[in-house]
């Protein structure tokens, strides 16, 4: 395959991937760091706390990375990285358990190096894992409630906010999976770059098959079929755009049927 042919094949693959990303974006809204910042801001206001932050787990390096913070004492925590098992945040992440520590100085799990790095040493911490049925993706920490120690209601509020942050992160990771889809498609392209005699073997149909296979691989790694749905919609739009309307009509009918079944079961 010549350089021009390889470039054309790669461009065709990118277009095929873009179709799937467009379908995915319509199915799952994109996440934004501003949402996480809003969540920690809400935590400081509702719980009357000095600071709040969210740390996200980086599985490739097994580190917790602070990505959002708010409050007068939040310091320079954004961008800070710690071992995934370090400190009270690491304990909440590793165990999946929510905890409130009234006196961090007396708690052996407290990692003062993190506090020193931010320039603020808290007296009390509430740590809540960002968890759902798929696992734990990070930790919400709230520091120093001004009205005294953290209460059971504070734990419930923090759990609700952590639930919202978890949804944001799951959505972001769906978008991050796009990079894996693109890599897989281009690796497949490289592995199928000709017939051994210098003649290109990659037409648009072959590329669509390779990209679809990469998409199927994403769905196979999870019980969530969203990527598979996006792939099917993207392929249908390419082959028969008019049929996409039929899919929308079918989904409407399915939703109406589910709604009717739900009403009958609740009556």
Name the descriptors:
267 residues; alpha+beta; Beta-Lactamase; 2 domains; 6-stranded antiparallel beta sheet; 8 helices; elongated
Q: What can be said about this structure in brief?
A:
The chain is α+β, with helices and mostly antiparallel strands and 267 residues long. Helices cover 56% and strands 16% of the residues. The chain has eight helices and six strands; from the N terminus they run H-H-E-E-E-H-E-H-E-E-H-H-H-H.
Average pLDDT confidence is 77
Domain count: the total is 2
Helix amount: 55-70%
Q: Which runs of at least 5 residues are low in confidence (pLDDT < 50)?
A: 195-200
Describe the 3D structure:
The protein has helices spanning 3-27, 33-46, 87-95, 112-118, 152-191, 204-220, 226-239, 244-266; strands at residues 49-58, 63-70, 81-83, 99-101, 125-132, 135-145. With 267 residues, it is an alpha+beta fold. The N and C termini lie far apart (66 Å). The protein folds into two domains: 3-29 and 192-266, no CATH class; 33-172, Beta-Lactamase. The chain is built from eight helices and six strands.
């Amino acid at each position: 395959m010549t350089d021009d042919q390889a470039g054309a094949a790669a461009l065709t693959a990118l277009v095929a991937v873009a179709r799937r990303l467009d379908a995915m974006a319509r199915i799952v809204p994109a996440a934004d760091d501003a949402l996480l910042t809003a969540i920690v801001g809400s935590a400081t206001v509702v719980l009357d706390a000095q600071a709040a932050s969210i740390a996200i787990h980086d599985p490739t390096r097994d580190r917790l990375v602070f990505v959002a913070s708010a409050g007068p004492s939040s310091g320079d925590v954004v961008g800070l990285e710690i071992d995934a098992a370090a400190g009270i945040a690491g304990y909440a992440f590793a165990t999946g358990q929510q905890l409130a520590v009234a006196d961090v100085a007396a708690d052996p799990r407290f990692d003062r190096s993190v506090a020193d790095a931010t320039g603020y040493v808290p007296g009390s911490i509430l740590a809540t894992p960002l968890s759902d049925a798929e696992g734990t993706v990070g930790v919400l920490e709230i520091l120093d409630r001004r009205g005294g120690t953290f209460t059971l209601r504070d734990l419930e509020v923090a759990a609700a906010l952590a639930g919202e942050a978890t949804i944001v992160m799951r959505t972001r990771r769906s978008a991050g999976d796009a990079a894996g889809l693109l890599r897989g498609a281009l690796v497949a392209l490289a592995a199928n770059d000709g017939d051994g005699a210098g003649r290109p073997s990659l037409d648009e149909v072959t590329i669509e098959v390779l990209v679809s296979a990469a998409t199927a691989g994403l769905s196979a790694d999870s019980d969530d079929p969203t990527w598979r749905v996006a792939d099917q919609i993207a392929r249908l739009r390419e082959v028969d755009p008019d049929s996409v309307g039929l899919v929308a009509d079918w989904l409407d009918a399915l939703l109406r049927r589910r709604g009717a079944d739900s009403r009958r079961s609740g009556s």
